[in-house]
Hints:
The protein is of the alpha+beta class. The chain has one domain (45-192). It is 33% helix and 31% strand. The mean pLDDT is 83.
Amino acid sequence: MRAEQxxxxxxxxxxxxxVLLAAVLLVLVTAFAGIGLAVGQRVMADGMRIAQAKExxxxxxxxxxxxxxxxxxxxxxxxxAVEDGGRRLxxxxxxxxxxxxxxxxxxxxxxxxxxxGNGVAAGTITRTGPESSAAGAAIATTxxxxxxxxxxxxxxxxxxxxxxxxxxxxxxxxxxxxxxxxQGGPLVERVRLRN
Length: 195
C-alpha cells in the first residue's frame, strides 16, 4: 500500500525543477510585457508632445492671422508697426465702416516673450487689446500660445501691406532629443493686409 501511495504522490504534483522553470518563465514573460508597455507609453508620450508643439503653432496662427489681415494704414494715423526686433506687432483693425470712413479698433498688441518675467513664461505670445469689437470693450491681456521657439518674429514688408510671421515650436522627447514643428525649421506665414 505504501508503494502505491508514493507513486500517486509523485504523479500528483510538480517536481522542484518544474516549479523553478515555471517561475523563471513567468518572470521573463512579465519582464518582456513590462518593457513593451514602458516603450509604448514613451512613444505615446512623445507623440503627445509633438502634437502639442504643432497645436501651439496652429493655435497662435489661427488667433493672429484674421486680426492682422484686418489691420491697415489710414490717413488718420491708424497703422501697423513691428517693434522690438520683430518681437512685437502693434496695430488697429478695421471693425466697420461709417459712411465715408473706416472705424478702427483700439490698439492691439501681439508680443513674444523671450524670457520669463511679470508672470509670463519664456516662449509665450500674448495679445493685449480690446476683448471684442464692441465700442468701449475692456482692454485685456490674454495668452495666445506657449512653448514657441525664439525664432519667432514679425516682419512688415516695405510696401506696408504684408506681415510675415515666423513661428515654430519644439519639445524634448523622452530620449532627450528635440523635436520641432514644423520639421526642418520654423513656419513662415505671409498675411496680406486687406486695408
